[in-house]
Amino acid sequence: MNKKFNRTTVTSALPYANGPVHIGHLAGVYVPADIYVRYLRLKGEDVLFIGGSDEHGVPITIKAKKEGVTPQDIVDRYHNIIKDSFKEFGISFDIYSRTSGPVHHEVASDFFKKLYEKGEFIEKESEQYYDEEAKQFLADRYITGECPHCHAEGAYGDQCEKCGTSLSPLDLINPKSAISGSKPVLKSTKHWYLPLDKHENWLREWILENHKEWRPNVYGQCKSWLDMGLQPRAVSRDLDWGIPVPVEGAEGKVLYVWFDAPIGYISNTKELLPDSWEKWWKAEDTRLIHFIGKDNIVFHCIVFPAMLKAEGSYILPDNVPSNEFLNLEGDKISTSRNWAVWLHEYLVDFKDKQDVLRYVLTANAPETKDNDFTWKDFQARNNSELVAIYGNFVNRTLVLTHKYFGGKVPERQELTDYDKETLKEFSDIKLEVEKLLDNFKFRDAQKEAMNLARIGNKYLADTEPWKLAKTDMSRVGTILNIALQITANLAIAFEPFLPFSSAKLRNMLKLSSWSWSNLGSIDLLETGAEISPAELLFEKIEDAAIEAQIKRLEDTKIQNEINSYKPEAIKEDVSFDEFMKLDIRVGTVLECQKVPKADKLLQFKIDDGMGGRTIVSGIAQHYNPEDLIGKQVCFIANFPPRKLKGIESQGMILSAEDANGRLVVVSPSDLVTNGVKVC
Question: Between these two residues, 12 and 428, which has the higher pLDDT value?
């Protein structure tokens, strides 16, 4: 716990290269990891930040097959999108590489071979589904069938998308291959397994006794897995995309993606530092920190440590600060449903506003429980916090300095008790921010940094230098000197959180020498030093920009409902003669109004070309009456009249029900004569 470390290796979960990065990934992993790394660098510590794309596995092969391209085409496309968007967003990796590269293939193969030669695997034969037409074993996602629980068709071999139940391929009713459509057969296959049960005792002591400081969600999930008892886990699978299992008799088999992906941290380090990588992974004075989302806890706290321990020469992680999930507008983020805010699109829609998203994601960080991102909150935090508090204080301070002292830092003379109280208050923030960052409490640490701007705003508001300028310029100089020192401190305090605006602020202050140790100093800017004119650090985000994002999500929701809609089964056949008994006509709505004391009913006066008629229809929840006046509609003219809420209805207006239950009246596409028949 109190061990002295000379360097820190920081890893962030490898994003899967079958789609771009979204805000859930950023909030869960990459923003907190980047904050922590930037903080360590500011302190002058030796730190290495490792990232990369996870490029193997079944979802990539499925996407490639669906698009008619190779898996390499898929990973090349998304690796570049992810890498470029991370760079533009300011995620400051020392290296961002990939698991399809030659260095990773070599390192992962060697890792497997060492464990294999040490006898750390067990071999097991099992029966798996095999496609005789395609001549290959089928991964779970390549097997579909009827769900045994809700009886929906098209359930996958690992999960039913309709009812959400986890499945195994053998659970499916009438299974078929997603590749050829044929019925698969069970066939024996051999695989290698990591016997996690063998490592259970030391894992229990290492985690439950020695790492009680881990976040409760991490510690609790690990305890749950350990209490259930660990089982052997396959490290190979039958697939043609991945790293070939490097032993005889393993043709057609690759390393399971969960096994090869975390080795990517090691291989990426070796790619960056081919001659010195080992000190970052094997030296006892190196600290290893994994930043992950909660869906990766078991792999980074139990499985990967078991792999490292079995190999024998690697250090184990000192901490695994995992976040929970970030939701979007009250709904779970979903790549398959396109329910996400994609980073590469945000960078286009909100150009040069990387720090705004970083700030909001940190303020809403799901550190201990799931949290929610909304566009309205995004706008409010930008306008009421970044603009109104931080930006406002900086702007006022620099503008007043240029107005009264020609853009030069004025002299600080005798301090009042209030000056001393203010200086003491902001100097204490360093210790608080530092303590929070050291304990991976990034949300609270950013809040403390913002308190520094609040202190500055209050100080200017209370001292009112613009009024004192008429009578006491020396006092004005002291006030603005203190305000400028607070401003310079803000540039340091916010560097880990908001690197772009911090760099902009340092340039305005011409602050050339700074580090974390300077935070809290009242002498960051020398008397007489020249500062640049004020530039806006942040700008207000208008309603139109937010409404466009909300509209995009609403359109996505509608499209998802359309895509997921399954028509009802067709009713039993009717004869042509029976159908011809229906007299369907076209008429124009002359009047339309709500029926009193009936939430669902509208009363129509229809020009039917035959003197007119009244029809009552249950579509009031789907239309405003005034929107229907003048519209042509189709109606059944030969229904016998019936009374609804005391009104005689002389027919039925035809409507179609869309995927989300909305009723849409049926109308001719062109204007026709009232009373004509629909045939």
Answer: 12
